[in-house]
Amino acid sequence: MLGDKAYSSRAIRHLLRRRGIAVTIPERRDQVDNRRRRGALGGRPHTFDRILYRDRNVVERCFARLKQFRAIATRYDKLADRYRAGVVLASLILWLREPAR
Hints:
Elements: H1 10-18, H2 29-38, H3 50-53, H4 56-66, H5 70-74, H6 80-97
């Protein structure tokens, strides 16, 4: 799982670790300072792969492009399958607009 600093909490990390999910979440500055202040009792720093974290940007940009469609951003549809169909259509439109590489 790739997440931003908002997901850097002990409870979330514990839940994901218990389920066997690999986590790449940067630590918040206050958590780093608190761990250092506690010394040996603060524990080891969490593993963080900077190279893998860069891939998160691709997903964020995809969501930003999808939210350019008003029906997706405001979720006019009440039924989940209709909303999903709108997301699929918006994705196809964005894919077809993309210049050939």
